[in-house]
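USER:
Working in pairs, take the chain set out below, taking as long as you need, and write a paragraph about the fold.
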Amino acid sequence: MKEIFMIAGGPSLKGFDWNRLANKDCFAINRSYEVVPNAKFIYFADWDFFDRHKAGLLAHTGQICTGYAANLCKRRIEHPDVLEFKLTGADGLDKVSPGIRHGRNGGYASINAAYHLGYRRIYLLGYDMGRVEGQTHWHNGHPRIDPESIYVTMMKHYANFAQPLKDAGVEVFNLNPDSKLKVFPFMDEYQAIGDKRPPPKVQLDI
């Protein structure tokens, strides 16, 4: 079964050792492409992201992906190196390529894209759906700070996503046990990646 690691922007990934994913198929979402040079795919949702990151995206070896909606005031990228999926609605799973459902969230849309790319086991990293110690992302410099209410809206869409994925034979595992996204089963990240858990730090009393 083809498996892939979806790497979102949640703050739980601060300090993550990206080398652990060196031999894995990875789908980098937004700025995750900067730290995962081996990512096979990159997905961005905001049209101006391509303008701001064009040089870095085109220098990456992964396939760049995005979505477009013909009925919205959203321009198409129309670049030969960008694979554009058609956004066909918010909820569910679109099984007919190039259509994808977006869930008002790039992480959601990229899961539907991964389905079209043949992946049937999907591991989620950085799908936190909330702030961690006041932080919204593992990186700095995010141009927009979303209110907490946006995560509630996103999770309502994910609630309508889990069963269609299961019905389509797609296994999805959330690797962050502290994530607020509860519709997918949790799996230990070391089990999913297949590496050894580091020994606990020993605190010496001096």
